[in-house]
Amino acid sequence: MFRRLSATEPMGRDVTVEAIAARLGRAAVCPSRQERERTVPLWSPVRYREGTTRASRNVEEVHWLVLDYDDGTPAAVARERWSGWVHIGHTSYSHMQGRPPTKRCPDGRPPAPALRVVLPLREPVPADVWSEVMRGILGGLGRDADSKCIDPARMFYVPVIASEGAPFEHWVHTPAGGLDGPWLCLADEAAAARQAIIDRDREREERREEARRRSRERDQVATRTDRDREVRRRLLEDPAARLALGEAMGGNVVERTGGRMVIGVLCPHCSRPDVFWFGDVGGGGLRRARCNHRNSCGWEGHLWQLAADHGITL
Ligand SMILES: [Zn+2]
Q1: Model confidence at 283, in pLDDT bands (50, 70, 90)?
Q2: What is the DSSP letter of 277?
Q3: What span, in angstroms and rounded, lies between the C-alpha atoms of 26 and 38?
Protein backbone atom coordinates (compact mmCIF):
# COMPACT_ATOMS: atom_id res chain seq x y z
CA MET A 1 0.00 0.00 0.00
CA PHE A 2 0.97 3.65 -0.53
CA ARG A 3 -0.64 6.39 1.56
CA ARG A 4 -1.26 8.68 -1.40
CA LEU A 5 -0.20 9.23 -5.01
CA SER A 6 3.00 11.09 -4.07
CA ALA A 7 4.06 8.54 -1.44
CA THR A 8 7.23 6.57 -2.12
CA GLU A 9 7.39 4.38 0.99
CA PRO A 10 5.54 1.11 0.48
CA MET A 11 3.60 -0.19 3.46
CA GLY A 12 3.86 -3.98 3.31
CA ARG A 13 0.75 -6.08 3.79
CA ASP A 14 0.24 -9.81 3.53
CA VAL A 15 -3.00 -10.29 1.68
CA THR A 16 -5.44 -13.04 0.82
CA VAL A 17 -7.55 -13.16 -2.32
CA GLU A 18 -10.58 -13.07 -0.06
CA ALA A 19 -9.46 -9.83 1.64
CA ILE A 20 -8.71 -8.17 -1.71
CA ALA A 21 -12.05 -9.29 -3.14
CA ALA A 22 -13.83 -7.71 -0.15
CA ARG A 23 -11.69 -4.53 -0.14
CA LEU A 24 -12.26 -3.87 -3.83
CA GLY A 25 -15.99 -4.07 -3.25
CA ARG A 26 -16.07 -0.91 -1.12
CA ALA A 27 -15.88 2.46 -2.84
CA ALA A 28 -15.17 5.68 -0.98
CA VAL A 29 -16.56 9.00 -2.18
CA CYS A 30 -14.09 11.55 -3.45
CA PRO A 31 -15.48 14.57 -5.31
CA SER A 32 -12.37 15.58 -7.26
CA ARG A 33 -9.25 14.10 -8.77
CA GLN A 34 -7.18 16.59 -6.78
CA GLU A 35 -8.64 15.32 -3.54
CA ARG A 36 -8.16 11.74 -4.71
CA GLU A 37 -4.47 12.47 -5.22
CA ARG A 38 -4.16 13.86 -1.69
CA THR A 39 -6.25 11.42 0.31
CA VAL A 40 -6.92 8.09 -1.41
CA PRO A 41 -4.46 5.23 -0.77
CA LEU A 42 -3.07 3.11 -3.58
CA TRP A 43 -2.10 -0.52 -3.77
CA SER A 44 0.50 -2.39 -5.76
CA PRO A 45 0.34 -6.20 -6.04
CA VAL A 46 4.09 -6.71 -5.80
CA ARG A 47 6.86 -7.56 -3.37
CA TYR A 48 9.42 -4.83 -2.81
CA ARG A 49 13.01 -5.51 -1.84
CA GLU A 50 13.37 -4.94 1.88
CA GLY A 51 13.77 -1.28 2.83
CA THR A 52 13.46 0.15 -0.69
CA THR A 53 11.15 2.84 -2.05
CA ARG A 54 8.80 2.98 -5.01
CA ALA A 55 10.64 2.26 -8.27
CA SER A 56 10.48 -0.53 -10.82
CA ARG A 57 14.07 -1.57 -10.09
CA ASN A 58 13.14 -2.16 -6.44
CA VAL A 59 10.31 -4.54 -7.21
CA GLU A 60 11.15 -8.21 -6.80
CA GLU A 61 7.99 -9.98 -7.95
CA VAL A 62 4.58 -9.18 -9.32
CA HIS A 63 1.81 -11.25 -7.74
CA TRP A 64 -1.35 -10.06 -9.49
CA LEU A 65 -2.34 -8.93 -12.95
CA VAL A 66 -4.30 -5.66 -12.97
CA LEU A 67 -5.92 -4.36 -16.15
CA ASP A 68 -7.76 -1.08 -16.69
CA TYR A 69 -10.48 -0.81 -19.31
CA ASP A 70 -11.01 2.90 -19.94
CA ASP A 71 -12.20 2.68 -23.52
CA GLY A 72 -15.84 1.79 -22.87
CA THR A 73 -15.48 -2.00 -22.79
CA PRO A 74 -18.64 -3.22 -21.00
CA ALA A 75 -18.21 -5.17 -17.77
CA ALA A 76 -19.85 -8.24 -19.32
CA VAL A 77 -17.24 -8.33 -22.10
CA ALA A 78 -14.28 -8.01 -19.74
CA ARG A 79 -15.74 -10.57 -17.39
CA GLU A 80 -16.32 -13.03 -20.25
CA ARG A 81 -12.77 -12.61 -21.49
CA TRP A 82 -11.28 -13.60 -18.11
CA SER A 83 -14.04 -16.04 -17.22
CA GLY A 84 -11.66 -19.01 -17.04
CA TRP A 85 -9.91 -17.70 -13.93
CA VAL A 86 -10.72 -16.31 -10.53
CA HIS A 87 -10.86 -12.55 -10.86
CA ILE A 88 -12.29 -9.47 -9.25
CA GLY A 89 -13.74 -6.62 -11.23
CA HIS A 90 -14.90 -3.18 -10.25
CA THR A 91 -15.82 0.02 -11.99
CA SER A 92 -13.35 2.87 -11.65
CA TYR A 93 -13.54 6.59 -10.93
CA SER A 94 -14.47 7.75 -14.43
CA HIS A 95 -17.15 5.03 -14.87
CA MET A 96 -20.15 6.62 -16.66
CA GLN A 97 -18.86 10.07 -15.67
CA GLY A 98 -18.00 11.48 -19.07
CA ARG A 99 -15.72 14.50 -19.30
CA PRO A 100 -16.65 18.12 -19.93
CA PRO A 101 -15.28 19.64 -23.15
CA THR A 102 -11.67 20.83 -22.96
CA LYS A 103 -9.42 22.65 -25.41
CA ARG A 104 -7.75 19.38 -26.35
CA CYS A 105 -10.99 17.46 -26.57
CA PRO A 106 -13.69 19.98 -27.63
CA ASP A 107 -16.51 17.41 -27.63
CA GLY A 108 -15.71 16.20 -24.14
CA ARG A 109 -16.28 12.52 -23.47
CA PRO A 110 -19.73 10.93 -23.26
CA PRO A 111 -20.43 8.68 -20.27
CA ALA A 112 -18.92 5.23 -20.83
CA PRO A 113 -17.93 2.22 -18.73
CA ALA A 114 -14.51 2.29 -17.04
CA LEU A 115 -13.36 -0.88 -15.30
CA ARG A 116 -10.56 -2.58 -13.52
CA VAL A 117 -10.04 -6.35 -13.65
CA VAL A 118 -7.76 -7.91 -11.05
CA LEU A 119 -6.43 -11.48 -11.26
CA PRO A 120 -4.39 -13.33 -8.64
CA LEU A 121 -1.53 -15.27 -10.26
CA ARG A 122 -0.68 -18.87 -9.52
CA GLU A 123 3.00 -17.98 -9.39
CA PRO A 124 4.55 -14.56 -8.94
CA VAL A 125 6.34 -13.21 -12.02
CA PRO A 126 9.93 -11.88 -11.59
CA ALA A 127 9.80 -8.11 -11.95
CA ASP A 128 12.60 -7.97 -14.52
CA VAL A 129 10.45 -9.80 -17.10
CA TRP A 130 7.14 -8.19 -16.11
CA SER A 131 7.02 -5.48 -18.80
CA GLU A 132 7.74 -8.08 -21.47
CA VAL A 133 5.00 -10.35 -20.09
CA MET A 134 2.57 -7.40 -20.03
CA ARG A 135 3.29 -6.58 -23.67
CA GLY A 136 2.30 -10.15 -24.54
CA ILE A 137 -0.91 -9.97 -22.49
CA LEU A 138 -1.91 -6.62 -23.98
CA GLY A 139 -1.40 -8.04 -27.46
CA GLY A 140 -3.56 -11.05 -26.62
CA LEU A 141 -6.32 -11.61 -24.05
CA GLY A 142 -5.84 -8.15 -22.56
CA ARG A 143 -6.03 -6.39 -25.91
CA ASP A 144 -8.60 -3.70 -25.01
CA ALA A 145 -6.97 -2.80 -21.70
CA ASP A 146 -4.96 0.36 -21.12
CA SER A 147 -1.47 -0.29 -22.47
CA LYS A 148 0.29 2.77 -21.05
CA CYS A 149 1.61 1.46 -17.76
CA ILE A 150 3.41 -1.84 -17.94
CA ASP A 151 6.11 -1.20 -15.38
CA PRO A 152 6.08 -3.37 -12.27
CA ALA A 153 5.98 -0.35 -9.93
CA ARG A 154 2.57 0.74 -11.19
CA MET A 155 0.10 1.39 -8.38
CA PHE A 156 -3.68 1.58 -8.28
CA TYR A 157 -6.22 3.59 -6.30
CA VAL A 158 -8.54 1.63 -4.09
CA PRO A 159 -12.10 2.03 -5.47
CA VAL A 160 -13.46 5.58 -5.38
CA ILE A 161 -16.57 7.18 -6.82
CA ALA A 162 -17.12 10.84 -7.58
CA SER A 163 -20.35 11.27 -5.61
CA GLU A 164 -22.68 9.42 -3.27
CA GLY A 165 -25.08 8.41 -6.03
CA ALA A 166 -22.46 7.55 -8.69
CA PRO A 167 -22.80 4.06 -10.14
CA PHE A 168 -20.38 1.46 -8.77
CA GLU A 169 -20.25 -2.17 -9.84
CA HIS A 170 -18.18 -4.92 -8.35
CA TRP A 171 -17.97 -8.61 -9.08
CA VAL A 172 -16.01 -11.60 -7.88
CA HIS A 173 -15.74 -14.30 -10.49
CA THR A 174 -15.25 -17.87 -9.23
CA PRO A 175 -15.38 -20.33 -12.15
CA ALA A 176 -15.04 -23.36 -9.87
CA GLY A 177 -17.20 -21.98 -7.13
CA GLY A 178 -14.39 -20.77 -4.83
CA LEU A 179 -11.57 -18.25 -4.59
CA ASP A 180 -8.82 -20.86 -4.37
CA GLY A 181 -8.67 -21.55 -8.11
CA PRO A 182 -8.20 -21.70 -10.96
CA TRP A 183 -5.82 -18.76 -10.88
CA LEU A 184 -4.24 -17.32 -13.99
CA CYS A 185 -0.82 -18.88 -14.60
CA LEU A 186 1.81 -16.75 -16.37
CA ALA A 187 4.74 -19.13 -15.85
CA ASP A 188 5.02 -19.96 -19.58
CA GLU A 189 4.75 -16.29 -20.49
CA ALA A 190 7.44 -15.42 -17.93
CA ALA A 191 9.76 -18.13 -19.31
CA ALA A 192 9.13 -16.95 -22.88
CA ALA A 193 9.79 -13.35 -21.83
CA ARG A 194 13.05 -14.42 -20.17
CA GLN A 195 14.10 -16.20 -23.37
CA ALA A 196 13.11 -13.19 -25.51
CA ILE A 197 15.24 -10.93 -23.32
CA ILE A 198 18.19 -13.34 -23.52
CA ASP A 199 17.82 -13.55 -27.32
CA ARG A 200 17.62 -9.78 -27.62
CA ASP A 201 20.69 -9.31 -25.44
CA ARG A 202 22.59 -11.88 -27.47
CA GLU A 203 21.59 -10.27 -30.77
CA ARG A 204 22.67 -6.90 -29.41
CA GLU A 205 26.02 -8.40 -28.32
CA GLU A 206 26.43 -9.98 -31.78
CA ARG A 207 25.73 -6.66 -33.45
CA ARG A 208 28.28 -4.98 -31.16
CA GLU A 209 30.86 -7.68 -31.92
CA GLU A 210 30.21 -7.24 -35.65
CA ALA A 211 30.70 -3.48 -35.29
CA ARG A 212 33.95 -4.07 -33.36
CA ARG A 213 35.16 -6.47 -36.08
CA ARG A 214 34.40 -3.93 -38.82
CA SER A 215 36.18 -1.24 -36.85
CA ARG A 216 39.26 -3.48 -36.48
CA GLU A 217 39.21 -4.13 -40.23
CA ARG A 218 39.05 -0.43 -40.92
CA ASP A 219 42.05 0.09 -38.64
CA GLN A 220 43.98 -2.58 -40.52
CA VAL A 221 43.15 -1.00 -43.86
CA ALA A 222 44.20 2.37 -42.47
CA THR A 223 47.45 0.83 -41.23
CA ARG A 224 48.00 -0.75 -44.62
CA THR A 225 47.44 2.61 -46.29
CA ASP A 226 49.85 4.23 -43.85
CA ARG A 227 52.44 1.58 -44.61
CA ASP A 228 52.04 2.03 -48.38
CA ARG A 229 52.40 5.74 -47.96
CA GLU A 230 55.60 5.24 -45.97
CA VAL A 231 57.05 2.89 -48.62
CA ARG A 232 56.26 5.38 -51.36
CA ARG A 233 57.68 8.25 -49.37
CA ARG A 234 60.99 6.39 -48.95
CA LEU A 235 61.10 5.42 -52.63
CA LEU A 236 60.73 9.11 -53.44
CA GLU A 237 63.14 10.52 -50.88
CA ASP A 238 65.50 7.93 -49.43
CA PRO A 239 68.54 7.29 -51.71
CA ALA A 240 69.44 4.05 -49.87
CA ALA A 241 65.96 2.64 -50.46
CA ARG A 242 65.98 3.72 -54.12
CA LEU A 243 69.32 2.06 -54.75
CA ALA A 244 68.45 -1.09 -52.81
CA LEU A 245 65.30 -1.55 -54.89
CA GLY A 246 67.38 -1.27 -58.06
CA GLU A 247 69.68 -4.05 -56.91
CA ALA A 248 66.68 -6.18 -55.94
CA MET A 249 65.42 -5.80 -59.52
CA GLY A 250 68.70 -6.92 -61.03
CA GLY A 251 70.10 -3.47 -61.81
CA ASN A 252 73.53 -2.05 -61.04
CA VAL A 253 74.41 0.84 -58.80
CA VAL A 254 76.94 3.06 -60.49
CA GLU A 255 78.64 6.29 -59.58
CA ARG A 256 78.11 9.18 -62.00
CA THR A 257 78.74 12.89 -61.88
CA GLY A 258 75.24 13.56 -60.60
CA GLY A 259 75.68 10.98 -57.83
CA ARG A 260 74.92 7.27 -57.54
CA MET A 261 72.29 5.82 -59.82
CA VAL A 262 70.66 2.56 -60.80
CA ILE A 263 71.01 1.31 -64.36
CA GLY A 264 70.23 -1.89 -66.26
CA VAL A 265 66.78 -2.70 -64.94
CA LEU A 266 64.41 -4.48 -67.33
CA CYS A 267 61.90 -2.10 -68.97
CA PRO A 268 58.29 -3.19 -68.46
CA HIS A 269 57.36 -1.63 -71.80
CA CYS A 270 60.10 -2.58 -74.30
CA SER A 271 61.72 -5.39 -72.27
CA ARG A 272 65.19 -4.04 -72.78
CA PRO A 273 67.44 -3.82 -69.69
CA ASP A 274 67.75 -0.08 -69.90
CA VAL A 275 65.66 1.48 -67.20
CA PHE A 276 67.58 3.82 -64.92
CA TRP A 277 66.95 6.19 -62.01
CA PHE A 278 68.93 8.32 -59.63
CA GLY A 279 69.58 7.66 -55.98
CA ASP A 280 69.76 11.18 -54.70
CA VAL A 281 66.91 13.31 -56.00
CA GLY A 282 67.64 16.37 -53.89
CA GLY A 283 67.37 19.68 -55.70
CA GLY A 284 64.34 18.71 -57.79
CA GLY A 285 65.94 15.95 -59.85
CA LEU A 286 63.99 13.23 -61.60
CA ARG A 287 62.23 11.07 -59.03
CA ARG A 288 60.84 8.58 -61.46
CA ALA A 289 62.48 5.72 -63.35
CA ARG A 290 62.84 6.06 -67.10
CA CYS A 291 63.63 3.84 -70.04
CA ASN A 292 66.83 4.94 -71.79
CA HIS A 293 65.17 4.58 -75.18
CA ARG A 294 63.38 7.87 -75.12
CA ASN A 295 62.22 7.71 -78.74
CA SER A 296 61.52 4.05 -79.44
CA CYS A 297 59.99 3.27 -76.01
CA GLY A 298 59.53 6.30 -73.78
CA TRP A 299 58.44 4.44 -70.66
CA GLU A 300 58.57 6.39 -67.44
CA GLY A 301 57.08 5.55 -64.07
CA HIS A 302 57.29 5.52 -60.30
CA LEU A 303 59.57 3.05 -58.59
CA TRP A 304 56.66 1.25 -56.88
CA GLN A 305 54.95 0.75 -60.25
CA LEU A 306 58.14 -0.70 -61.61
CA ALA A 307 58.50 -2.93 -58.56
CA ALA A 308 54.93 -4.18 -59.08
CA ASP A 309 55.71 -4.93 -62.76
CA HIS A 310 58.67 -6.99 -61.56
CA GLY A 311 56.48 -8.91 -59.16
CA ILE A 312 58.06 -7.35 -56.08
CA THR A 313 55.69 -6.76 -53.21
CA LEU A 314 56.70 -3.80 -51.16
ZN1 LIG B 1 61.74 0.68 -72.71
Answers
A1: low
A2: E
A3: 19
Kindly report the average pLDDT of the chain as a whole number: 91
| pLDDT at res. 285 | 67
Q: Give φ, ψ of 246 to 5 degrees.
A: -60, -45
166 neighbors 31 (Cβ within 8 angstroms): no
Predicted local confidence at residue 220, as pLDDT: 75
Q: 239 alpha carbon to ligand 1 midpoint, in Å?
A: 23
Neighbours of ion ligand 1 (CB under 5 A): 267, 269-270, 291, 297, 299
In terms of pTM, does the model score above 0.70?
Answer: no
Q: Are 196 and 133 in contact (CB under 8 A)?
A: no
Contact 159, 166 (CB under 8 A): no
Nearest-angstrom CA–CA distance, 299 and 292:
8
Give the list of residues 6+ apart from residue 246 with CB closer than 8 angstroms, or none: 252, 253, 262, 265, 277
